[in-house]
Design goal:
about 220 residues, 6 strands, Rossmann fold, six-stranded parallel β-sheet, 7 helices, alpha/beta
């Protein structure tokens, strides 16, 4: 049986983050989100350390966005927002928690990319650019922080969450997306959460620097 770990989840109130939180019962989990009390907004605040243990064994950074527009309609502000939320938010959280991650016997960081980084997809320029930086950060930190801190990322395809509701609520768009996936369905938060829990666990202790495609076969 795995020893109880101290795990921080950023973006734990909805969708994938909430599902990860549920699946981590048995561990000491510290959830943060804009809807928690007190609220934490990665865009405007530094992660508060009050109440966190001195040793952190796992960090999951879940915040993301779906801003699908043709390139010519994207403004500089769109790229900046995606960058701050998806990339700089993760950087700030990891910089804050690094001293406590170093104190763990074997820590694990889980970040999130998207299938659109490796698969060129129209209207994904701003999000794919920011998540591409996450993939670079994942590989760089995996090398730099080894052997005591593992760093991996998950690259999902479309997942049915509150964030994607504008897409999945449209029956035609949803059906078209289902047909594009070899497994003929879009993802659930539980699909992605299971992969995240695996990467946090000792079962994945020989994995680092990996971008794990959990995408219904879309990347094929």
């Amino acid at each position: 049986m795995e020893i109880m770990k101290n795990i921080v989840i950023i973006g734990a109130s909805h969708g994938i983050g909430a599902s990860i939180l549920t699946k981590l019962s048995g561990h000491q989990v510290f959830p943060f989100s804009r809807s928690e009390t007190p609220p934490f907004d990665v865009l405007t605040q530094d992660l508060p350390l009050d109440g966190l243990p001195e040793v952190i064994d796992g960090v999951v950074y879940c915040p993301g966005s779906i801003n699908l527009k043709p390139f010519h309609l994207l403004k500089n502000e769109d790229f900046e927002m995606e960058w701050q939320l998806n990339f700089m938010g993760a950087v700030k959280v990891l910089r804050t928690l690094y001293p406590r991650l170093k104190k763990s016997e074997m820590a694990s960081v889980v970040l999130f990319s998207t299938v659109a980084v490796q698969n060129g997809m129209p209207y994904h320029a701003s999000i794919a650019a920011a998540k591409g930086a996450i993939e670079g950060l994942t590989r760089s930190l995996a090398s730099e922080w080894a052997p005591k801190i593992r760093v991996n990322a998950i690259a999902p395809s479309l997942v049915e969450t509150p964030l994607s509701a504008k897409l999945t609520a449209n029956a035609k768009i949803k059906e078209q997306s289902i047909e594009k996936h070899p497994l003929k369905r879009i993802g659930t938060p539980e699909d992605i959460a299971s992969a995240a829990v695996y990467l946090l666990s000792d079962e994945s202790s020989w994995m680092t620097g990996q971008i794990l495609a959990v995408d219904g076969g879309m990347s094929l």
